[in-house]
Amino acid sequence: MSKKKKITMQDIANKLNISKNAVSLALMNKKGVSNATRELVLQCAKELGYSNTNLTELNNNIMVLIPERVMSYEDQDHFQFFHDMLWGLEQKIREEGMNAVVVRIDKETERTLKLPRLLDDIAYRGIIMFGIIDYAYAKFIYELDVPVVMLDSYYRDLPCPVVTSSNIEGACEAVNYLIGKGHKEIAFIGPVNLTTSHEERWFGYLTALEKHQLTIQPHLQLTQSESFSKTKAEIELFIAKLFKLNQLPTAFFCGNDRTAYILQDVLLEMGVPQQTWPSIIGFDNITPPDSRHLPITTMSVQKEKMCEAAAKLLITSSSSTFINYRAALRYSIPPVLVERQSVKRI
């Protein structure tokens, strides 16, 4: 006697000519499908002999949305950082007995606010938005009314669980470190207007200066950027202006290591001898691009702990009422100071 074929959600989806995810939403009695569709799915499931025990398959997939631009080899600095984070995130999700389904979001998908096909084709437990996704698209995904966790970057008016590095505290520690080395003229470089992480690190910079009663000097702060692709040109103008005014500070705190190494590039191209460079400290702990660069003293982001927290928050918020997946929960992981050659004592 042949074994009876197990009926799956895909069988129901094929029968009704709808997406598998629509079937999962209907079976789980969640928002996202009409009452008419829900009734059709339930009736079809009953006719085909779909068992409620099959609902466990709905709980295995976690969608990880990441902008394609940060995973491109055209941006080696971002690629290294985000690749490490993505690998760690996949590992932590597997340790929780789930599957990480990575979905790359290209510029056209963001611009047109299209739902990735994978989100229609397979059932999933929730979504982790990873990296700097355009606001309009992040809002579009947020409004799907499924559990969402934002990792590394977030938007304050989209309340949901968020995992970041402790940016304010880490920046404050970095600037305190420079002050402890005798520096009083400390500049800041970071696109505050583009990401919450740089905004928070700028706030930590200001907090440290105020704590030590040092004068906050606006001309030593480059906080606005047209885009990440303009970073080098903007730093060139900033440094040229400081040289022209003869006001080059003794130290720079950069919003991330990518910015710090671009600052080194600018100093190299301007012909400034390395032994006369100002002290530089960054954030993220990225490997130097090549041997021309001086290894940066940095605040090392604890990637593994951030990934573990994101996986646990998503799974918890999607499986119980303990965490409201529309609550502005912030989970911050303290970074660790790594001392290298780029900071000198005055």
UniProtKB/TrEMBL annotation:
Pfam families from the UniProt entry: LacI (PF00356), Peripla_BP_3 (PF13377)
Keyword Transcription regulation carried by entry: yes
Lineage, top ranks: Bacteria, Bacillati, Bacillota, Bacilli, Bacillales
The keyword Cell division is assigned to this record: no
Limits of the HTH lacI-type domain: 7-50
Domain of life: Bacteria
Keywords: DNA-binding, Repressor, Transcription, Transcription regulation
Protein's UniProt name: DNA-binding LacI/PurR family transcriptional regulator
PANTHER family, per the entry: HTH-TYPE TRANSCRIPTIONAL REPRESSOR PURR-RELATED, LACI-RELATED TRANSCRIPTIONAL REPRESSOR
Secretion signal span: none
Any one GO MF annotation of this record: DNA binding
